[in-house]
Each structure stands twice: as C-alpha cells, then as structure tokens.
Design goal:
With 310 residues, this protein is an alpha/beta fold. Helices cover 42% and strands 16% of the residues. The model has no long low-confidence stretch (mean pLDDT 91).
Length: 310
C-alpha cells in the first residue's frame, strides 16, 4: 500500500517507517522537524517531505492515491497555547479533510494516554480535541493511546535523561521519584501499528499501555545498571527542581521539561492496561530487556543524531 505517515521523524516514526518498508509498503514520510533528514538517510527508498501539516502546501498532493494515513504529528511542548492548537487540532483537521478528499478509508490516529489522565494542560486538552475530531469525522479509523514511550531515537524524556546520566555522577529527580510510570517500548507500539495495517479499521480506541508499574526513580536505576554506571539519585522538592530546570534552560537555551510536563510526570496516573498484546498478537517487551536492546540495537549508533524537538 501507499501509506502516509505524519510526524514521521520522531521517536515512533524513526522506528515504524523501516518496519513498514520491510512489509513491502510505499511510505511517504512527512515531518516539519529537521530529523526528517536522518530518516531519509537511513531509509533511502522512502519519500520524505519536510513540511508542517498544520499549514497548506505542496505536501498535500502526496495524499493522492494513498490507501492509509498514520497520523502521529503532535506538539508536545511549547511556550504558547496557540502552538498546541495549531498542530494538535488544526493539523488533525487538515489530515481529516485530505482523507475525505482522496477517499482514504483507513486512518490510524496516535493519541496519548494523557487524554484519560488527571493532567489538565494545553497538550492534554488539544489531544482530547484531536481524538474527538477523528471520531466525528466518519472516516474509518483506529485510535491508539500510548503512555510515556522510550527506545532508540528518543531525543526527550528517558532518552534525554540517559544522555544526562552519561555525563553526570549525581542525577536530580523531581519530587520523591516514587510516582508510578507504565512506560511502553516504542517497538511494541510500532508492531501494533503494523498489525493494524493488515486489518480493516473498526472505529475502535485502544489504550496501549506498558504492562509493568515501575516507580520513576527505579526506571532511572535500571537504565544506569544496564549501562554499567554508578550514579547517585538525588530527590529534590518540586519547586527546587523547577528552578534548576529554568536555570539550565537559560544557560543552555534548551528546554528539557516544561512546567506542565513536570506536573504530568509527577501526577501519579495509574492507567488501565488493556490486553492489547493478545488483541494484536504482539509480545510485550519488559523494560529491562527493551532498555538493553535500545542501546545495543543496530540503529543505536545513529540515535545521538536526533535533535531535540523543543
């Protein structure tokens, strides 16, 4: 099939696109981020387009003749509410309009577990709105809600903290670090998406959540042990941790976590775990095994080339 993938240069796309190619599909990858160059270099058979899907442009012509759209683009962090609306709402509207125009009868929409979390911020509100647009569109679709993800090509979250830990013997942790996370290995989500390409869409929503409940500080300890590092993890009160982040951002001119992201991280959500592994015949990869694979897999040497999306 001819498959359009938006947001293709991020963590999921960099891992998903090669899987789709191995399945024999013709992939058109669209992303506004400069990491699209890395995707193009590693996947020369893929048509790569650098464009912002929230804005009209020549990229829209690529939808002609497509059989399926995998919609993954999203604004995760920003300094203004309008940026979340532009990508997570207006961008979704544009994709829906193109699916209708070209009679594309299969839309896979990658949402987020935040839509059912206790968080209440611009990202959460716009992701909820994006879901509702897809459901109301009458386009045959599937919605997937993954949680915190990790794996090769992760330029933020656990990927960023791993690179920080590589350089620093003392690692600050927001709060007490005991809040539970249910992380998902990105390749598990990709395998679910590949399984969906073989199905007719049933207008269903799946919470694709990691099957382990691990305190955040233990995630960091497992990462350090896997890499053979001895590190001191220093829990800090949230106000002090926030001040440290702001100072870091001023010095480096890089935003690591926004205040909203820190609140979401420490919120302590406990998500229902659907039997997605049985539904899609995808074997769940335990965190310890997946972390080892992340740093020893064939593409690990390229992962550091990923630029931060912030």
């Amino acid at each position: 099939m001819r498959i359009i993938v938006t947001g293709a240069a991020g963590l999921v796309g960099q891992n998903l696109v090669p899987m789709l190619v191995r399945e024999g599909h013709r992939v058109v990858a669209i992303d506004r981020n400069r990491n699209i160059g890395l995707l193009r270099r590693l996947n020369p058979s893929v048509e790569c387009i650098q464009a912002d899907v929230s804005q009209p442009g020549e990229w829209q012509d690529a939808f002609k003749g497509a059989s399926m759209v995998i919609q993954m683009h999203a604004q995760i962090a920003a300094d203004a509410s309008s940026k979340f609306v532009q990508s997570n709402v207006e961008g979704v509207k544009n994709i829906i309009a193109l699916c209708k125009k070209h009679k594309i009868r299969n839309l896979i929409h990658i949402s987020s577990s935040v839509v059912v979390s206790v968080a209440e911020d611009d990202y959460t509100r716009t992701k909820r709105a994006g879901e509702q647009l897809v459901k109301a569109s009458r386009i045959p679709h599937t919605i997937l809600r993954p949680p915190l993800m990790y794996g090769c090509f992760d330029s933020k979250h656990l990927g960023w903290i791993t690179r920080f830990m590589e350089k620093m013997p003392v690692v600050p942790v927001p709060g007490d670090g005991k809040y539970i996370r249910q992380p998902l290995y990105v390749n598990d989500l990709c395998r679910v998406i590949v399984a969906l390409t073989r199905r007719k869409p049933g207008n269903k929503t799946y919470d694709v959540i990691g099957k382990e409940r691990i305190p955040y500080i233990d995630l960091l300890r497992i990462i350090a042990k896997t890499r053979g590092w001895t590190r001191l993890f220093l829990p800090l009160p949230l106000p002090l941790f926030g001040l440290m982040l702001r100072t870091y951002s001023l010095v480096t001119r890089k935003t690591v976590f926004t205040p909203d992201q820190m609140k979401a991280l420490t919120a302590g959500d406990m998500f229902q775990v659907d039997p997605w592994d049985k539904e899609f015949n995808v074997k769940y990869t335990p965190f310890r095994e997946a972390i080892w694979e992340t740093w020893h897999g064939p593409n690990a040497k390229y992962a550091k080339e990923m630029a931060s999306p912030h």
